[in-house]
Known about the structure:
Helix content is 77%, strand content 0%. The chain is built from five helices and no strands.
Amino acid sequence: MAASPTCTCRTGPPVESAGVIVAGLFYLGMFALAAGMSRHAPALLGGWHRPTIAARLPRAGWILVVLSLALTLLSADWSRALVAWLGLAPLVAGIVVLSLTFAPVLARTGVVLAAGLAVVGLGMTLAGASAAL
């Protein structure tokens, strides 16, 4: 019998949990970028609107967007994940813009949901890692 080939594939977080984390971080980043703009900050931040907070949001937004991209590139099937991330960009931006236009309360609610997605995805990743042990 011939020896079975060995796989030298990169391993990363499970695709499902990584996608959930990426989507949550991406939404949080896009929200922070929008809320960092002086025109949108009062509507999106509401009572939290302070010049010091609004000044730090663009940097935090870019960090979250780049972090979501980095997690995408660390996945086992990074080429397909990158295409999905590029498709997620207009979807998330559209959700933020439409909610900003019609109901900023929905955008703020989306922040809670996106943070929840990131936490759930992290929990799924940790549960998968502990099950593999």
